Amino acid sequence: MALFGDFSRLIFLLTVLTLFSSVVNCEDIFLEWHVAVDMTINPASVDQPVITVNGMFPGPLINVTTNDNIHVNVFNNMDEPLLMTWNGIQQRLNSWQDGVSGTNCPIQPAKNWTYVFQTKDQIGSFFYFPSINFHKAGGGFGPIRVNNRVVIPVPFSQPEADFDLLIGDWYKQNFKDVRSKLNTTSEAYDSSPDSMLMNGKGSYLDPLAKAHESFTVTPGKTYRFRISNVGIAWSINFRIQNHRMVLVETEGSYTNQIPLDSLDVHVGQSYSVLVTADQNAADYYIVASPKLVNVTEHSPLVAVGVLHYDNSTIPPNGPLPIGPDPFDREFSVHQAQSIRWNLTTGAARPNPQGTFNVSNVTLSQTFILHGSTAEIDGAPRYTVNNVSYLTPDTSLKLADSFANGSGVYLLDEFSANSSRPMSVNGTFVVSGKHKGWLEIVFKNDLSVMDSWHLDGFGFYVVGNGIQQRLNSWQDGVSGTNCPIQPAKNWTYVFQTKDQIGSFFYFPSINFHKAGGGFGPIRVNNRVVIPVPFSQPEADFDLLIGDWYKQNFKDVRSKLNTTSEAYDSSPDSMLMNGKGSYLDPLAKAHESFTVTPGKTYRFRISNVGIAWSINFRIQNHRMVLVETEGSYTNQIPLDSLDVHVGQSYSVLVTADQNAADYYIVASPKLVNVTEHSPLVAVGVLHYDNSTIPPNGPLPIGPDPFDREFSVHQAQSIRWNLTTGAARPNPQGTFNVSNVTLSQTFILHGSTAEIDGAPRYTVNNVSYLTPDTSLKLADSFANGSGVYLLDEFSANSSRPMSVNGTFVVSGKHKGWLEIVFKNDLSVMDSWHLDGFGFYVVGFGDGNWTPNSNSTYNLYDPVVRSTVQVYPGGWTAVYAYLDNPGMWNLRSQILKHWYLGQELYVRVYDPDPNPNKERPPPGNLLFCGKIDPPPPPPSTPKPIPAPVPVPVPDAPLPASATTPQIPW
User: Fold this and answer.
1) Average confidence (pLDDT) over 748-771
2) 7-43: b or e for each residue (b if 16 or more CB lie within 10 Å)?
């Protein structure tokens, strides 16, 4: 029996070892490299030294598999010290092999050293290069492929072949000569490379180039191009004549697969795209052109290669394929934002990438890194937070391990959160919390593109109408947030959860909106969700609003008088903050340039204070397609009413004769002439036009024609058949058979209270307490700040009062809101946290029988709706978003003087997936004091101690753009 038991254990052990070996299966790859300088290659058609690896430029491919061990014995045959680094290889648990000055001592001339590292839990496209002494400007780079293990499926069919394509700008001078001149301001800040190479070769269009790059393909086959920008300075735009690309991977992450006509690749980045040879047998141009610089197609800064069909006898011809304008930042940012992680596929491991995400992480630290320039000790330098890194003679890793850093660097001497008042040279080393989440905000204070890389890790690149799903803590109004005090800062972290569309942001307290501070928000569709119209040539943001010529503080100070509170109005109308084209005193006017035959999307928002507007473009019809996150039935329009706080998207086709045309926005319910400062006039400029706009301004409807405005509002219907933020049609969620849980009937009016003019809701004028409602609700159950349901949301009080108006909304119940406007001016109402269905408009009094006139079939969903003078508007809202939500007039004076309330939607479930907990950086104010800080942690000995790092906000999305303001 004992023998049998031992035998069983042996079988079990062998089974485990077999399974382990099948999972961990890895190989040892041994490479011997001789790094030298070669004077015969002449990639830029001039004699110059080029750094080669084994006589090759670019160097040899490192072609390995996940978890392989790579041994690279590097012989330095140059005349100065050398280090090689592996861009994107994370060196798991082994920074000794990273190959930069802080981790490794250089390999001296005529010496060798062996790097030994593992591609642990990685796949993807990367490259290597020499990391010190400006060597990268002389070459020495080459491609790295880390292939999937065979047991891990790849999320696309096996391509016919993989092509490595290393593209980068290049100096025609000796890299040592360039390096020696970097102590002068002109070379350090203003000089730039002379040419662009593809795999170390010149342009196909350059008759002096010794060689050009060419890739041979077979018709009908698909190929994987692994593209890396190995350059020195310029970001590039990459494209292939007549061929679309499909993005599939970037630096070890499989992406959502998006089709591309061109791809921006910034310095140090790597991408994989699939290209199918689906054109006629011929040769086609492959092009990489620099960003932020104007070049012609024959410029040496435009790299040109060839895609050669193996049965082709036709050389490439025609103009080079056109990319985006190199200065079109919007294109580049939009494309970057569209590159998303494929959450459902595995990569280095079989479990989906999305099983590890940032939707609910708690940040341990935040670094805010400002990149800038400075003159330090008379020399030009680049800085981070006004510190320019000085490389010590001793590697940091060596000093850390053998001398606790002593005499080499002082840990956390410099701040990673703020800039020093004076620029200094220093060895900048900061603490990162082990197994903590770090947020890094890169701030570029330069006028050129910057690009950052973090060794050892991959990182997640992470308003009005934004619904703040499950997270009213980030809503940015007085009831949810304590104000940011002067000279302080605070970070909002929110997610555009299940939303698309056109919105805007603005300052919400102290009448600040009258002084500006607003800007546009676009929430684009995910690439997997089809948009119900063809891709426009470009999107234009157009923020239109009335404006006071006085200081907003002066206007605010006068609102305690009846004349200012009720009768005054703004003086002018602006388009994107600019005056009218017809105003000779205006410093600037707005103009949009279009190409004949192309269609453009105008995202129009009324960011104003008081006036609704009518918008129109001379001789051009518009097609309405979207409003505040809802795709609409597409209706043609000659003009469009846009009420305060509303946003719309219209398509405009440049289908007229080449000329310039007036763009006009005029106020509703006021008589104006075309030269009135209350008429905003911009220009639609055809790019081949030499004719200024002429003739009378296009005529809109009578500004007092209420019937036109109501009829247009009723014609704006929800597109029931298209998807929006989700793939299922919008119409799968509708109001045709809902059961109402509550009805609010809200009368907007005015009153004199304690001798001061106020605006009211049901005869209650909102008073803003010192303590935010959400703070009081969470920490004191509202005690001493507000009394829930003290005021009725169904009827008006007999006497007007000031009060903090908070009502209960039933969680996951249907709420009907009837807005009744008792004033003689247009009103406009907004509900934070939700979109509502606009089901009806009417005149006079609303009664329960008025619902017989409702449109319950295809009412549009939006977050801001107009209420006509003396009339009513009805909406339905589904209260599935727990939180404290602001319901307000969008007319700024009405809001500032009390026409608002809050709807508390309470879910007793404490699950943070139902409603987010308070953020880690929560601001406190009024009656609620911050909790005492936790006890300090004793200093460990002998390791250096990190500086304390303040808590940071909870990220809300796996893609988290950082926007420092």
Assistant:
1) 93
2) eeeeeeeeeeeeeeeeeeebeeeebebebbbeeebbb
Whether residues 859 and 957 share a domain: the answer is no
Q: Helix, strand, coil shares of the chain as percentages rounded to 5?
A: 10, 35, 55
> Of 715, 738, 754, which residue sits at a domain end?
715
State CA 206 to chain mean position distance: 38
Question: pLDDT value at position 130?
Answer: 95
CA-CA distance, 792 to 777, in Å (whole number)?
19
Separation between Cα atoms, residue 384 and residue 423, nearest integer Å: 9
Kindly state the helix (H) or strand (E) to which residue 396 belongs, with its residue range. helix 396-403
Contact criterion met (CB below 8 Å) for 754 and 827 = no
pLDDT at 497: 59
Q: Is 944 helix (H, G, I), strand (E, B) or coil?
A: coil
Greater model confidence, 941 or 772: 772
Same domain, 221 and 87: yes
Which residue is it, tokens 């050009």? 212
Backbone CA torsion sign across 359, 365, 366, 370: negative
Q: Contact at 8 Å (CB) between 783 and 940?
A: no
| Residue 656, token pair as written in the block | 């007229």
Confidence category of residue 28, pLDDT binned at 50, 70, 90: very high
DSSP string, 816-834: EEEEEE-SSS-EEEEETT-
Residue 950's pLDDT band (cuts 50, 70, 90) = very low
Residues 627, 512 contacting (CB under 8 angstroms): no
* Counted domains in the chain: 4
SS3 187: helix
Cα–Cα distance, 114 to 70 (Å, whole number): 10
Whether 586 is in a domain gets the answer yes
Q: In three state form, how does the secondary structure of 210-274 look?
A: CCECEEEECCCCEEEEEEEECCCCCCEEEEECCECEEEEEECCEEEEEEEECCEEECCCCEEEEE
Which has the closest alpha carbon to 862: 722, 732, 735, 717? Answer: 717
What SS3 state is found at 52? strand
Would residue 208 count as lying in a domain?
Answer: yes
Q: Please indicate, yes or no, whether residues 696 and 576 belong to a single structural domain of this protein.
A: yes
Q: Do 119 and 249 belong to one domain? A: yes
Contact 612, 866 (CB under 8 A): yes
CA distance 53 to 32: 10
Phi, psi of 222 (to 5 degrees): -115, 140
Say if residue 551 is exposed, middle or buried (CB neighbours under 10 Å; 0-12, 13-18, 19+): exposed
- Scanning 891-944, the segments in alpha helix (DSSP H) are 892-896
The CATH number of whichever domain residue 766 belongs to comes to 2.60.40.420
Which pLDDT band holds residue 651 (cuts at 50, 70, 90)? very high
**Containing structural domain, residue 696:** 520-715
Burial 192-217 (b: 16+ CB within 10 A, else e): ebebbbbbbbbbbbbeebeebbbbeb
What span, in angstroms and rounded, lies between the C-alpha atoms of 153 and 346?
7
Quote the pTM value.
Answer: 0.52
Q: Tell which residue, 545, 485, 473, 544, has the closest CA to residue 510.
A: 485
680-686 sheet: strands from edge to edge: 591-594, 680-686, 660-667, 613-617, 640-642
Domain boundary at 715, 744, 763, which?
A: 715
The answer on 185 and 64 residing in a single domain is yes
Is residue 867 domain-shared with residue 782, that is, in the same domain? yes
Same domain, 261 and 120: yes
CB atoms within 10 A of CB 108: 12
* Residues 742, 708 share a domain: no
Whether 322 is in a domain gets the answer yes
First to last CA, the chain: 75
Separation CA 392–CA 399 (nearest Å): 10
Q: Is residue 920 a part of any domain in this protein?
A: no
